[in-house]
Amino acid sequence: MATTNEKIKIKVSEVAALLGWSYTTAKSIKDRKSPKDRYETYLKCEKKLIEAKEQINIQLSKH
């Protein structure tokens, strides 16, 4: 069972799907860290995915 201490990995394809971007667009923005506004959007989405996965892990560990 996964714990919150483990490093949760987010795939570029997960972020791309949530943002409605193609995989290549998301990968390019992540690697180049530009344009700045889209990179910030990418990071916010990635952070929210990590938080959501942590919450799922907590809920699953309770049962």
Short characterization:
With 63 residues, the chain is mainly α. The protein has helices at 12-19, 23-32, 36-62. Helix content is 71%, strand content 0%.
Structure write-up:
It is a single chain. By secondary structure, this protein is mainly α. The longest helix has 27 residues, at 36-62. The mean pLDDT is 91. The chain is elongated and about 40 Å long. 71% of the residues lie in helices and 0% in strands. The chain has helices at residues 12-19, 23-32, 36-62. α1 packs across α2 (23-32) and α1 (12-19) packs across α3 (36-62). The N and C termini lie close together (11 Å). It has three helices and no strands.
Annotate the secondary structure layout.
Blueprint: H1 12-19, H2 23-32, H3 36-62
Helix pairs in contact: 1-2, 1-3
Task: Give the tags.
63 residues, mainly alpha, 3 helices, 0% strand, elongated
